[in-house]
Design a protein that fits this description.
Layout (H helix, E strand, L loop, with lengths): L1 E5 L6 H14 L4 E4 L2 E3 L3 H9 L6 H4 L2 E3 L5 H8 L5 H14 L2 E5 L7 E3 L2 E2 H8 L3 E6 L4 H14 L4 E7 L7 H14 L6 E5 L8 H11 L1
Parallel strand pairs: 1-5, 1-8, 2-5, 3-4, 8-9, 9-10
Antiparallel strand pairs: 6-7
């Protein structure tokens, strides 16, 4: 199982996760996606349900849905509704038993608050699964990626790699050099740059998919 996080919200976590699930299923693995928390519309969990060949319902994929588009903690204050952690834990436990390859997508970035004293970090730590970091390839990516990797390590979790999403902003000289610079900065850390996803891609590059499958072996 993998926990998918991002350097920020809107960096392409769902896009990547959906592609990964489809390819895992095409390879013969009974894979499914879960987004325990969702704020705003429910398009992200719908994408995961579709990628999972409708093998789970929208409520199984996304047990806690906050309508206000903000962090879960902020949304809970505005909606005057407590986040149901027990429901999340129950649903994740059930899905783990059903699917040998369960991919869990976090909400927002790495440290997004869920309760006043409980964040996405705590949820990932409870699961204890390897973390894969999706980063939008744009100006500021190096800083955001390095800070997030430091926070993942500080939580005692292993990041199995960084994936760059080229579909968030137009590509230029900065984005063209980000990957090579990041690879140099991460050299010797044990965290590889897995590759890049181009805008409009309908599948992960074969080398990227192969690396992820090998990491799960």
């Amino acid at each position: 199982m993998l926990f998918i996080t991002g350097t920020d919200t809107g960096v392409g976590k769902t896009y990547f996760t959906s592609l990964l699930i489809r390819q895992l299923r095409a390879a013969g693995l009974d894979a499914a996606g879960c987004k325990p928390l969702c704020c705003g519309d429910r398009e992200d969990p719908r994408c995961l349900v579709s990628a999972s060949d409708e093998r789970l319902s929208i409520n199984e994929c996304n047990p806690v849905w906050m309508r206000f588009p903000a962090s879960p903690y902020t949304a809970s204050i505005i909606e005057e509704k407590q986040i149901d952690l027990a429901l999340i834990r129950e649903q994740l436990g059930s899905l783990k038993k059903r699917f040998p390859a369960l991919i869990v997508e976090g909400v927002g970035g790495w440290c997004v608050p869920i309760l006043r004293d409980y964040s996405s970090v705590d949820l990932a730590r409870e699961l204890g699964d390897p973390v894969l970091l999706v980063a939008a390839n744009r100006l500021g990516m190096l800083n955001h990626t390095l800070l997030t990797l430091q926070a993942i390590a500080a939580a005692g979790l292993r990041c199995v790699g960084v994936l760059l999403n080229n579909g968030v902003t137009p590509q230029d000289t900065i984005t063209a050099t980000n990957r090579s610079v990041l690879e140099e900065l991460l050299s010797g850390t044990g965290v590889p740059v897995l590759g890049e996803i181009e805008s409009g891609a309908t599948a992960l590059p074969p080398a990227v998919f192969k690396k992820i499958v090998e990491l799960q072996a």
